[in-house]
Amino acid sequence: MRIAIASGKGGTGKTTVAVNLATQLVKEGYSLALADCDVEEPNVHLFLPGIVFQEREVHMPVPVINHKTCLGESCQSCVYLCRFKALIWMVDEVMVFPELCHGCGLCQEACPAGAVSDGARLVGVLRHNDTNGGLAVIDGRMRVGEAMAPPLIREVKAQADSTGRDLVLLDCPPGTSCPMITSVQGADASILVTEPTPFGLHDLILAVETLRQLDIPIGVVINRHGIGDNRVEDYLAQEGIPLLARIPHSEEAARAYSRGKLLVDTLPEMKEIFDELWLATQKLLPATTEEPHA
Amino acid sequence: MIIALSSQGSSLESAFDPRFGRAQGFILYDTESGETRYASNEQNYDLPQGAGIQSAMNVVKAGAKAIITGHVGPKAYAALEKAKVDVYFSAAPTVSEALEAFKQNRLTLAQGADKPGHW
What we know:
The complex is a heterodimer of chains A (294) and B (119). By secondary structure, chain A is an alpha/beta fold. Chain A has helices at 14-27, 77-81, 106-110, 150-162, 178-184, 198-213, 231-239, 251-258, 263-266, 270-282; strands spanning 2-6, 32-36, 54-65, 87-90, 93-96, 116-132, 135-142, 167-171, 189-194, 218-225, 243-248. The radius of gyration of chain A is 22 Å and the shape is elongated. The two termini of chain A are 14 Å apart. Chain B has helices at residues 51-61, 74-82, 95-103; strands at 2-7, 25-30, 36-40, 64-69, 86-89. Chain B has a five-stranded mixed sheet, with helices on both faces. The longest helix of chain B is centred in the middle third of the chain and has 11 residues, at 51-61. The N and C termini of chain B lie far apart (32 Å). The model of chain B has no long low-confidence stretch (mean pLDDT 95).
């Protein structure tokens, strides 16, 4: 079972919810994988001091043209068909701009002369730790200068699935564009974290609309409850979206966060809040899904 | 020799377009005959990515041996360099003024891209 922790707005508390929920569930006997899908700025590891990762490089395929077998100016199929405009015909040969390639492989399919083969572009480094008791942790660090996050995110998710844990928690990047959609795809349910402010509501609505398109059941956690106004709760009631939990705003919570401490280890009331959050999250899942057991 | 000038419109009096890849179009000026022709760049100027190199391919296919524009990034410059196209930068307000500056040898030949890459 996979649960995606997402939001429209950045900085609402996705990682706070992910690491605290993961820690709480492991204490209760669950075996789970926590995947930090925000490969542009991973931060789960900040809350797991001392964690040691195994690392491996992740590449994606990009075209390499054999200029001897290429049919040349009369063909140019790869140039015309590339949707990402990564190839051009220049003077007497095809020029490839690998940094623009999305790795779809169409140029290779289309070449009548078999002159296109696979090269590789380094997209980043995948890190994983599968020795930390009940919790496996996976993240990715995108190469500086790389523009495309999805190939690395897909590897992070595949690595999390390969741990064979009962439950995979996906800490997703903010926004509603390709990195977020790649991260939430295939999730059985999604926890959307928001703050009770006009900005929080605006971006929450974008995330709700995106996840509805993807047919992923959603519930909402209001973080920093007590600031802002009631518009988020009014919206949830109006849309019939379950409110999974309210995490109260407090200076103690902010202080714990800024020191890389977990709320469930620091503030006594948090254990109950995260237990309730988990109970409510399970109700989002289709009735046929078996609950993972402790 | 044909020179491609990035332009926001179809005549010499049009506003000079400081963008290369996302120029509205190009005025192609023939230095021998003095004739001009307009090539729209509308297939490229709103591409999500790759506009610079597509524009480079198109001006080269149109026979340009030099371009005059506001800025060129590294990928477009690499493509133009392969075709041995000379790149000149200008900040002129109109295409005709950019062309006049070129004719009076007031533009210097670029030695590389003047902007970093982006996607």
